[in-house]
Amino acid sequence: MNQGKPEKLYADSVQLAYAKTLEFVSHAIIILMAIGFILYVFRLLPLTVPVETVAANWHLNATKLQVKIHHHCGWSCFEDVHTFMHGDAVSYASVVFLSLATMICLATSTMAFFREKNRIYLVITILQILVLLVAASGKLTSGH
Fold first, then answer.
1. How far apart are CA 141 and CA 14, in angstroms?
2. Dihedral (C-alpha) 25, 27, 33, 35: value to the nearest 10 degrees?
3. TM spans, by residue (predicted)?
4. Is 132 inside a domain boundary?
């Protein structure tokens, strides 16, 4: 064991920006997921799918459940305010925000790379964000 001076850890500005953003986003996600869960379980907003229906069909995969209960899928729950103002849609939105955490952190890194004039990493980071956006859009999916 090294009992001498502790080694200094080095983090550049991009790592610090990513870490600060991740800390903020992760705390925000925990709060939003708790709010979404409370709204859903305690039925503080109307539900499009009752909790009992979800529990009774827990054995089904997502595709079969959507077919059985004739429920919207993908991004369609965000089409209008009426559809979105349901407890399960708010809960789902918190999960979507969780999946966006990486993109938010990468966007922060993009700004740090731009300030440092580090063009190669800037382009790589922008490409990563574009790939994640295309994947999240669902436009490149296989048929069922």
1. 33
2. -120
3. 21-42, 89-108, 120-138
4. no
Residue 17 within a domain: yes
Q: What's the structural domain count of the chain?
A: 1
Roughly what angle, to the nearest 10 degrees, separates helices 13-41 and 87-116? Answer: 170
Tokens 């080095």 sit on residue: 10
Largest CA distance in the chain: 66
Print pLDDT tens along the chain (144 aa): 556 666 676 778 888 999 999 999 999 999 988 988 888 888 888 877 777 887 888 888 877 877 787 766 666 666 767 767 777 777 778 888 888 899 999 999 999 999 999 999 999 999 999 999 988 887 776 555
Alpha-carbon torsion angle 115, 102, 33, 46, nearest 10: 100
Q: Domain residues for 57?
A: 13-100
Give which of 29, 3, 7, 21 is closest to 109, Cα–Cα: 21
- And the tokens for 95? 């999960």
